[in-house]
Structure prediction request, 321 residues.
Amino acid sequence: MTPYEQGLAALRAAQYPVPVRSRGVIALLEENCTVCMVCARECPDWCIEIDSHKETLPPRTERGRPRVLHVLDRFAIDFALCMWCGICIEACPFDALFWSPELPPATRDPAELVHERAELRAWLATVPAPPALDPAAAPAKEQQDADRRSGPG
Amino acid sequence: MTAATTAYGVVTVDVDRAEWPRAVTQARDEGFAFFDLLTAVDREGDGFDVVLRLWDPRRRTGLVLRTRCPRDDARVPTLLGVFAGAGWHERATAELFGIAFEGHVTTPLLLPASFEGHPLRKEFVLAARVAKRWPGAKEPGESDADLATPSRRRPQPPGVPPGWGERS
Prediction:
């Protein structure tokens, strides 16, 4: 550990606890991303870069048709440009983006503030659990589907 | 003419431009003695709003005063005689919006001497929007290499006039 990193670690340890729902960095759950480009188009300061390509899946049945799939190649958020508005997270139709309360690490080079998909995925571990549902609320749609599939009958 | 509206808990008083210093003096003498900020809003065809926020330190309440000037006659009387501290804000507003404050010879405050234009006017071309390619121009399933093919009509970035980012 360099003295610089030691200082950073000390600062971090001394930092007062940030509220759980703070806006720190944005985490990416790639499995949910369909490369629809909505976040990149909604971002007011153009800080999300997405590259993808098309792949054709063979038909699943004999008379079926081949399916075209969009495959993510690059997903990067430039935290030097990001202004923490959260519009990308709100706009994502498939819940692929999440706020994490962790702050992007300080760097000496602004280029290092561009977090590529591996880093964005790593932030997922720091995303807090969603707030609990109201006790009287119906279970989430996903839960209902799962219950129906595995339920009795 | 003076009209007061309340929106989002903020009381805003619209003042005729000729009445501007008099109305601000009156508000100050009624207790809104703390000058908070002065800035402007570009209303495009309707001209510019000059917006002033005052604070009453005893009653702990704020007040917004607003006056409007047409685009081709962007002049508003100065508030230097009411709040000396308004000078700094008027300099910034004059520079960023191109609004003249009558009775106040504003000198540049923030921008370099060689700067041309008024960057907070809506028609000002943002250099960053010209220098950088819009990441949303790509369709799903495309990467940067696909952008070279000019075959189809591409989506345009919102809020950017056509032709801005096209470097040919």
